[in-house]
Design brief:
By secondary structure, the chain is an alpha/beta fold. The protein is built from 5 helices and 6 strands. The strands form 2 sheets. Strands 5-2-1-6 form a 4-stranded parallel sheet, covered by helices on one side. A two-stranded antiparallel sheet has the order 3-4.
Length: 145
C-alpha cells in the first residue's frame, strides 16, 4: 500500500536559487519563480505547508515584455480615499519601479492567504547583477524561453 507523504514545516529543506532576468519575458520569469516559491518542483509538495525555496531575481530592470504591452498594460493602486486611484503603465513601472514591477508579477501568482504571505517573504528582487546573499550559495535557476 502506498502512503502519501505530508511535509511538516520543521522537515522542509530550503535551497536558494538565483534567476537572471536579463532578456527574460516577465510572464515566463514570474511563473518559474512562483513555481519554486510554492515548492511545486519538489516531490514532497504539500498544499497547506510552505515547502518552497528562496528565490533571488537579479537584473530586474532588464526584464522584457512582448508586443505592445508596455504601453497598454496598466497597474492600479488606490489610497482608499475618493479620487485616490493611481494608474501607471507597464513602461512607467519598468523605468521607475522595476523591483515592484517584477514583484507584482510573481506575487500575483502566489496564493493570497497567510500561507502566500510566508512565500512572498522568500522572494528577493534586485535591479543590478549584485545581491547580498552570496553566503547562502544560491544555485542558478534557468527560465525556459
Amino acid at each position: 500500500m502506498r502512503q502519501t507523504t505530508m511535509a511538516k514545516p520543521a522537515e522542509v529543506k530550503r535551497t536558494w536559487y538565483v534567476v537572471d532576468g536579463e532578456g527574460q519575458t516577465l510572464g515566463r520569469l514570474a511563473t518559474t519563480c512562483a513555481h519554486v516559491l510554492r515548492g511545486k518542483h519538489k516531490p514532497t509538495y504539500t498544499p497547506n505547508v510552505d515547502c518552497g525555496d528562496y528565490v533571488i531575481v537579479i537584473n530586474a530592470d532588464k526584464v522584457e515584455m512582448t508586443g505592445n504591452k508596455l504601453n497598454t498594460e496598466k497597474y492600479y493602486n488606490h489610497s482608499g480615499y475618493f479620487g485616490g486611484l493611481r494608474t501607471r503603465t507597464a513602461k512607467e513601472m519598468k523605468q521607475k519601479y522595476p523591483v515592484e514591477w517584477v514583484e507584482r508579477a510573481i506575487q500575483g501568482m502566489l496564493p493570497h492567504t497567510k500561507l502566500g504571505d510566508q512565500m512572498r517573504g522568500h522572494l528577493y528582487v534586485y535591479t543590478g547583477s549584485e545581491h547580498p546573499h552570496a553566503a547562502q550559495k544560491p544555485v542558478e535557476l534557468k527560465v525556459k524561453g
